[in-house]
């Protein structure tokens, strides 16, 4: 009986500290266009075993008045971001620092 009590306590402890890595549901990805340029040859020098890439993420807005978009990333360096709405560039937005716990940068309309 003592073993069962210990198991329940450990299980409750683990559930209490679980982190929710799910993205917000205010926008839903519809499709992705991904381009990757790998560097695997020895002549690639310092870039060997790295890659450059580009991703276009097309989203559907699931709620009214969405002012924030969150995405996951890990071990990636984002060099630039362009936000479009109806094929027009959204000029004023803020990029918040990367959140290490959620592994997500956040873009917010200014």
Explained architecture:
This protein is mainly beta. It has a domain at 27-89. Helix content is 14%, strand content 41%. The protein has one helix and seven strands, in the order H-E-E-E-E-E-E-E. The protein has one helix at residues 2-16, and strands at 27-39, 50-61, 68-70, 84-85, 88-89, 93-99, 104-109. The strands form three sheets. It has a three-stranded antiparallel beta sheet, with no helix packed on it. Residues 1-18 form the signal peptide.
Distance between the termini: 58 Å
The total count of strands amounts to 7
Write the H/E string, N to C.
HEEEEEEE
* Percent strand: 35-45%
Structural class: mainly beta
Oligomeric state of the chains in view: single chain
State the helical fraction: 10-25%
Question: Reading side by side through the largest sheet, how are the strands ordered?
Answer: 3-7-6
Q: What are the low-pLDDT stretches, counting only 5+ consecutive residues below 50?
A: 1-7
Please give the count of helices: 1
Mean pLDDT over all positions: 74
Globally, the shape reads elongated
Give the biggest sheet: 3 strands, antiparallel
Radius of gyration: 20 Å
Keywords: Signal
InterPro entries: Aminopeptidase_N-like_N_sf
Signal peptide: 1-18
């Amino acid at each position: 009986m003592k073993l069962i009590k210990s198991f329940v306590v450990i299980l409750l402890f683990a559930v209490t500290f679980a982190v929710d890595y799910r993205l917000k549901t205010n926008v839903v990805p519809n499709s992705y266009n991904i381009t990757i340029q790998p560097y695997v040859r020895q002549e690639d020098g310092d870039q060997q075993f790295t890659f450059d890439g580009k991703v276009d993420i097309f989203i559907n807005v699931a709620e009214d008045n969405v002012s924030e978009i969150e995405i996951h990333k890990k071990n990636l360096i984002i060099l630039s971001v362009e936000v479009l709405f109806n094929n027009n560039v959204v000029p004023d937005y803020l990029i918040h620092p990367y959140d290490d716990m959620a592994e997500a940068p956040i873009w917010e309309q200014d």
